[in-house]
Amino acid sequence: MSPRVNDFTINIATANGTGSQSANLVILHSMYEMGVPVSGKNLFPSNISGLPTWFIIRASDAGYQAPGDYTHIQIMMNKDTWQKDLDNLDPGTVIIYNEDTKLPVDRDDCIVLGMPMTKMARKISPKMAKLMANMYYVGALAHILKIDDDAIRKAISQQFGGKEKAIEWNMQAISEGKEYAQENWEYESEYLAEAREKDPNTFLIEGNEAAALGAIYGGINMLSWYPITPSSSMAESIIAWIPKLREGEDGGATCAVVQAEDELAAAGMVLGAGWAGGRGMTCTSGPGISLMSEFIGLFYFAEVPGVIWDVNRTGPSTGLPTRTQQGDLSMLYEASHGDTQHIVLIPGTVDECFEFGWRAFDYADRFQTMVFGFGDLDLGMNRWSTAGFEYPDIPMDRGKVIRSQEQMDAIENYGRYRDVDGDGIAYRTLPGSGLDPILYRGTGHDENGIYSEDPQVYHATMKRLKKKIDGARDLLPAPVIREEKEKKIGIIFYGSMENTIVEIDDMLEETGLSISTCRVRALPYHSEVQKFIEEHEKVIVLEINRDGQLFGILRKELPVHLLSKVQSVAYSDGLPPRAKVYTNMIIDTLEGAES
Amino acid sequence: MSILKLNVIDLEKSEYKGGKSSLCPGCGHDQISNVIIQAAWENGIKPEGIAKMSGIGCSSKTPAYFLGKSHGFNTVHGRMPSVTTGANMVNKDLSFLAVSGDGDTASIGIGQFIHAIRRNLDMVYIIENNGVYGLTKGQYSATVEKGSKKKKGAANQQAPIDLCAMAVNLGCSFVAKSFSGSKKQLTALLRAAMSHKGMAIIDVISPCVTFANNDESYRSYNYVKANDEVLHIVDYIPHFSPIEAVEVPAGEFKEIKLFDGSTLRLETVGSEHNPNDPVEALRAIHEADREGRHVTGLLYYNPDMKTATETLGLTDIPLMALPDSQLRPSKESLELVNAGFRAN
After folding, report:
1. B51 — contact with chain A (CB < 8 Å)?
2. B330 domain residue, yes or no
3. What is the rounded CA–CA span in Å between residue A278 and residue A280?
4. Does B311 contact chain A (CB < 8 Å)?
5. Given an 8 Å threshold on Cβ–Cβ distance, is A254 in contact with B91?
6. Total tally of structural domains belonging to chain B
7. How far apart (Å, rounded) are the C-alpha atoms in residues A169 and B332?
8. Are B294 and B228 spatial neighbours (Cβ–Cβ below 8 Å)?
9. Is the CB of A246 less than 8 angstroms away from the CB of B112?
């Protein structure tokens, strides 16, 4: 029987804080090094040590990056989830388990392979046995999948950079694990990791780090933040990279970093920075956005630029703080009290995390408003492939700022909030410039920035703000459309669903359906999104949440005659999207629509 | 022909004025606004170099009534310190002059107030402290003394928060208390605060004429006048005209050198107060409190603290004025970043 080549999913069940992450990354990186198209997902608990963690590695020549709907190889290291992990497996699964747990493996219908991992690790180092035991399953997998030795060595030295002792011990553990498997297991493997020609330009990186680098190339000069999973690594990446990439002529810092007392203060600092003419940014997750909402309204109404990244985790409240979701979209779009509407940039790849990282500042300055970057834990904290980031192709856009008396004189009838160009965007002056100062305020104000409660003045201001943000639609990133000739069924989706959509598309096309897809990359949505809906017979809006939040936004803004052909498929359980779940829901929805 | 009086940078006082106040006639806050105008003018600060900051409340409305040539931001309730922090980070050359109230600072904004002090934000922070919420029609605030009674309703039963004691405990670099009715003292203290580098807090008792100016209120004009315990007589001697200085007092005095070279002279009244000692500052506050009195003067001063932007080691040019070339790293640098990831 010929083996399944580069088409399998490995699920590794361990406990948090046992050092398994190093072993898991060694497997991921060694296969990546061989050119095997591979992705990794870390499903971790909100805990420092002891609670269960699963790491899912999927190899797929088809390029599928979702966790996969089946587990082909199960690694069993965690006593606490032992029976549940076993019960979830399909017949025929390869089970590799640590015999030293002394727990039974009652699955005669599976291929059960045991190894005394802890005992063997103890021989290398009694103290480190718990950590080192994980490297034995790396050896076991290297045997079963025929992972290249050189690739493993490279992954190990990358993981333990410079620590010679650690490299030596871990390599020893891996080769002992491999030898044990060779000598003791009578199993002819059905799975094979086969080397592919690797694009030498590609590497893996987390979305949060990509967005952080983007922000640095976007000229960030004030970062305020309050730690919250899963966004903290974005701030920490900025802090780590800034001194390597930028410094003032006197060697001083060109970006102020303030760890704020809470998210309210973090948002206030971004507001202050934007008002004073700087490029301020903060990053947070849903609970932080809730706290920032009062300030977000002030950004909108006083018309101050700023950037806030929301790395979505599973809400509401504390929810599942280490799991993923697209549950904040509608909150972001209309955050704060009263009538508001905000620009939301929605990257679906790490390349876009970088690109929107710098573009966000340009949009904020251009439209004099708060701009959201919207990612999620899956994109932000898991590693994704890129061929390298592209340098910004346009100079920094600082928007309509008057910097001299000459510029001021050139404008007839200047007022801070007067729409002299007809695009809803007024000119502003900066504190310290001495040019036409005003007292910025969240209370009603007229075109000159003077306090006003006049009904007509308020109404005109709100109308202009609507026009301003509406005018951004077609200047924001356009959707990515993959169209079939036959325009029957269109799927609209966004963000990290990008990693699952190809597999969903393939599953649907196998049933004979013709599917076009449209990935929305910003709100307010681009006119091409509406065109896509107009051109397709039926449109599904696919989302990782319960209620169909983008669907709701579309229903509110689309012309009424288009509404009947748009339907929602939304599902969220905290895990990264698996193709089969969504495919089945799409089929059910389409069938329901027919009957 | 009348001779117009000009300050050291040749500006008339009118250059420092603002719009017409909409507060109640006789409000202590308006007196403070006048002192702000006077102090900024006398110190010869360029109006465009000042940023006026405030939160929400009667006091926070006042930036509309002074320094009309300065930019300002009337922010949200209790959150002015964070907005000031962000603005200060990107433009450390601005002189931040903030006005807040007791509701704004001691209740909703107490967290931001505390953290601004911890960072030693380079700003003047005036609290116009009357013990009541005015705009919402006279509820007690968190600074009002136990037993104090406003015009309507029962006496306050909760312990007060003394913002100066808190600031001293937090290591604030300049802490003073004053009274809106003591124009000379307040002007000298404010001028000194403007000459200070770092966070300067002036907690000013500013009676609310509408809701709490009855004699049973510990923050009414009559009560404060009768119970003002002056720590020392303060005189400000500007660095640009030291000779113009006030007469040398007959009794004992102490002089404090301020950051811009100006001097604050503290003339002893009763026993000497050492403003470099936080324990003395706290003793003065607690002793006055025990006797139902209000201590006023410069409570605490520490010139040797780094400001927030100094601690961060920011480059000398204000960050908002940096050229794009210093904000966006080169194309080559990105190639190196990419190459570094590929090599790993």
Report:
1. yes
2. no
3. 6
4. no
5. no
6. 1
7. 38
8. yes
9. no
Low-confidence ranges of chain B (pLDDT < 50): 1
- pLDDT bin (cut points 50, 70, 90) of residue A593 is low
Give the whole-angstrom CA distance, residue B98 versus residue B113.
11
pTM: 0.96
Residue B123 CA to residue B341 CA, distance in Å, equals 43
Segments forming the whole domain that contains residue A465: 400-477
pLDDT in tens, A422-436: 999 999 999 999 999
Q: Do B338 and A389 touch (CB under 8 A)?
A: yes
Question: Which pair of tokens denotes residue A398?
Answer: 């600082």
Using the predicted structure, report yes or no on whether residue A594 has a pLDDT greater than 80: no
Of A245, A262, A277, Cβ closest to residue B320: A277
Containing H/E element for B132?
Answer: strand B132-133
Phi/psi of residue B268, each to 5°?
A: -65, 135
Long-range pairs for A525-529: beta carbons < 8 A, 24 or more residues apart: A525/A473, A525/A479, A525/A553, A525/A554, A525/A557, A526/A473, A526/A474, A526/A476, A526/A477, A526/A478, A526/A479, A527/A473, A527/A474, A528/A478, A528/A479, A528/A481, A529/A479, A529/A492, A529/A554
Classify B295 in phi/psi space as left (phi over 0), alpha (psi -120 to 50) or beta.
beta
Domain-embedded: residue A394: no
The candidate with the shortest Cα–Cα distance to A336, out of A300, A370, A293, is A293
Interface of B with A in 229-288 (CB under 8 A): none
Q: Are A306 and A280 in contact (CB under 8 A)?
A: yes
**How many angstroms from the chain centroid is the CA of residue A429?**
36
Q: Position A3: which residue type?
A: P
DSSP B246-265: PPPPSS-EEEEE-TTS-EEE
* Residue A278, both tokens: 């700087």
Interchain contact, A254 vs B315, CB within 8 Å: yes
In a shared domain, residues A215 and A106 = no
Q: Is A444 on the interface with B (CB under 8 A)?
A: no
Q: Which residues contact B253 (CB under 8 A, 6 or more apart)?
A: B232, B265, B266, B267, B268
Which of B75, B89, B331 is closest, CB to CB, to A391? B331
Q: Is B166 part of a structural domain of the chain?
A: yes
Nearest CA-CA distance, residue B8 and chain A, Å: 19
pLDDT band at A219 (very low <50, low <70, confident <90, very high): very high
Cis ω for the linkage preceding A316 (within 30 of 0): yes
- H-helix or E-strand spanning residue A317: none
For residue A33, give the nearest of A200, A205, A173, A160 by alpha carbon.
A200
Question: How many other β-carbons are positioned within 10 Å of the β-carbon of residue B13?
Answer: 15
CATH at residue B194: 3.40.50.970
Assess whether A301 and A434 both reside in one domain: no
Residue A182, classified by CB atoms within 10 Å of its CB into exposed (0-12), middle (13-18) or buried (19+), is exposed
Mean pLDDT of A354-373: 98
Cβ–Cβ under 8 Å, residues B74 and A440: yes
- Residue A143 · residue A184 · CB < 8 Å: no
Same domain flag for A314 and A332 = yes
Instruction: Give chain A's largest Cα–Cα span.
Output: 87
Q: Which residues of B128-148 are buried (b: 16+ CB within 10 A; e: fewer)?
A: bbbbbbbeeebebbbbbbeeb
Residue B295 DSSP SS3: strand
Instruction: Judge: A437–B342 Cβ closer than 8 Å, yes or no.
Output: no
Strand ordering across the sheet containing A94-98 = A38-43, A52-60, A7-15, A73-76, A94-98, A111-115
CA of B79 to nearest chain A CA: how many angstroms apart? Answer: 7
CA distance A223 to chain B (A): 9
What digits encode the pLDDT tens for the residues B280-312?
999 999 999 999 999 999 999 999 999 999 999
Contact A362, A396 (CB under 8 A): yes
Same domain, A291 and A334: yes
Residue reference for tokens 């030596």: A168
